[in-house]
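Allow me, if you will, to draw on your knowledge of protein folds for a short while. I have a record of one protein: its chain in single-letter code and its fold written as C-alpha cells. I should value your view on which stretches of the chain appear to form regular backbone elements. Thank you for your consideration; the sequence and its C-alpha cells are set out here:
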Amino acid sequence: MSKELFLAALICYLTGTLGYLLYVVLQEEVLHRVARYILLFGFILHASGFVVSYIQTGFLPVSTFRNSLSFFALAIIGAYLLIQARFNLMILGSFVSPLASMFMIFAALTPQAALPASPLLKSLWLTVHVSFVFLGLGIFTVAFAAAIMYLIQERHLKRKRFSPLYRRLPSLDVLDAVNYYCLVSGFPLLTIGLIIGSIYAQMALGKYWRWDPKEVWSLSTWFFYAVLLHERLTVGWRGRRAAIMAVIGFAAILFTYMGVNHWLKGYHSFSGLQAIK
C-alpha cells in the first residue's frame, strides 16, 4: 500500500493511543472523544490505502509480512470501533489502541519485500477469506484486551487495594459481557473465513486440505475458540476462567500468525506465497 497513507495511519494511531493513555491519567472525557476521532480518521486513511492498492494490483496486499502486520492492525482498529459503538467503554481504547500501534510499528520496521505476482492471489475468494479471518482475529484481540482489564480489576477486588486504575475500569460483569460478545461475533467470522479459504484451496490447488502447518494451527486455534464458545453457552463458563482462556486464545493466534509463518514453512508462509505459480 501507499507509504504516505501507511505513515499517516501510523501517526494517527500513535496520536490516538497517546490521547487514550492521557485519558486514563486525567479522566477528561474530551481526550477520549478526540482520541477516538483521530483513530477513526487513521482507520479511514489506512483502509483507503488497502483499497487503492487492491484497485491497482487486483489483489489484497497481505502477502508480505509487513503488509499483513499492517492489515492486522487495521482489523484490530475496525473491530474496536465496532465494539466501542456497542458498549461505549471509554477506557477500552486505552488497552486496544496500543496493540494496534505495536503491530503498525513492527510493520514499519519490517523491510518491504517485493509483492509476488502469482495469478492465484488475484481472486475475490482469497480477498474475502483473508478479510473475514483477520476481522475475526481483530475481534478476538479486543476480547484479549477486555480479558486483561478483567484480570486487573479482579486482582484489585481480591486484594482490596484500589489503585486509581480501579476507578477507571468497568465492572467485572461489563467486561465479561464484552468478552462474550467478542466471542460470539468473532467466531462466526473466523469460521466463514476458514471455510472460504478451504473452498478456494480446492479451486486453485485441487485440494480442500493439504496439511500445511498454517492450516493445522489455524484449525487448532478454531477448535480452541469452538470449545470456549461451547463451554460458555452450555456449561456457563464466565468470569476469570473465560478471561484466562481469552488470553490463551490470543497467544495461540500470535503463534499461528507469526510463529508458524516464520518457523514452519508451507505454502501459507510468506516465502511460500511467493513460490506459488
Q: What stands out?
A: The chain is about 80% helix and 0% strand. The two ends are 22 Å apart (CA to CA). Residues 1-114 form one domain.
